Amino acid sequence: VLAELIEKFVSHLSESRTDCYFSTGNYKAMETDVKKESLSSVQQLGVEMTVRYGKYLNLLEEDAENGLCFVLMNCEKFLEQQQRTVVSSLCCLQERYTGYDWFASSIFLIMSGDRERTLTFLQQFSRLLVSAFLWLPRLHLSIHLPVTTVEYGIHPVYFCSAHHIEMLLKAELPLVCSAFHLSGFTPSQVTDQSWITQCFWNYMDWSEICHYIAICILLGPDYQIYMCISVFRHLQQDILKHTEA
Questions:
Q1: 16 CB contacts (<8 Å, ≥6 apart)?
Q2: How far apart are CA 164 and CA 157, in angstroms?
Q3: pLDDT tens for residues 173-229?
Q4: Residues of 71-96 as b/e, b for ≥16 C-beta within 10 angstroms?
């Protein structure tokens, strides 16, 4: 039901010019067999983890690994069409996205391992503004960003979402904000490097991960910020307890 809901919602918005924030070219999926070895070592580990998790949730069949590799490779090729070349010594700007695509993997699980359905959804989803915040590889070396922003290697999630999370945390949960300052650790280090980048994998149950993705798609990218604040509110007593100790 969730898969059908977000699929119809994104399909409807992607057909509206006013809702399409990004322009995308035509891309046809590669029909050749995609071998796991063509992925980076990080992606290979991610594929193993995703398939193991999907089987644990009874969402994937035995041959799911090939389907996920197919999705990841085609996403990479599709997004390459919208990337610019940048000369930089930064590791994160050396061609392909250095991390694992947790969002695409999440959609693959939501679609129960249907590779064509997943890829069609992601291509339509990439036209919407919310894709910039939920799907981090979407704006890697992107032509949709100013050259200076790309050269700094800082994703909009870091300088946009993180900024608003810290501002809201200061207003809504001042004690939690103070606890972070005392520790010398910033809230954005937790929200960006762990929660948002990984789509809350290893932090929330699968149903809650699905709710996070659906809420942000249906209600807008600002709900990514509200979700993070809600989690901090939920953890407030634990955070204060650890600070005292």
A1: none
A2: 10
A3: 999 999 999 888 889 888 988 899 899 998 999 999 999 999 999 999 999 999 999
A4: bbbbbbebbeebbeeeeeeeeebeeb
Residue type, 241: K
Contact between 91 and 98 under an 8 Å Cβ cutoff? The reply is yes
Could you give the 3-state DSSP secondary structure of residue 142?
A: strand
Q: Would you list the domain boundaries of the chain?
A: 1-19+32-144, 154-244
Q: Is the pLDDT of residue 34 over 70?
A: no
Query: Which secondary-structure segment (H or E) carries 150?
Result: helix 147-152
pTM across the whole model: 0.90
Q: Burial code of 188-209, b = ≥16 C-beta within 10 A, e = fewer?
A: bebbbeebbbbbbbeebebeeb
Both tokens of 92, joined, read: 């994160």
- Please give the structure tokens belonging to residue 106: 């999440």
pLDDT in tens, 91-131: 555 666 678 999 999 999 999 999 999 999 999 998 898 98
Measured N-to-C along each axis, helices 206-219 and 2-14 cross at an angle, to the nearest 10 degrees, of 20
How close are the terminal C-alpha atoms of the chain, in Å?
Answer: 45
The continuous run of DSSP H or E covering 183 comes out as: helix 174-183
Q: Kindly report the number of other CB atoms within 10 A of residue 217's CB atom.
A: 20
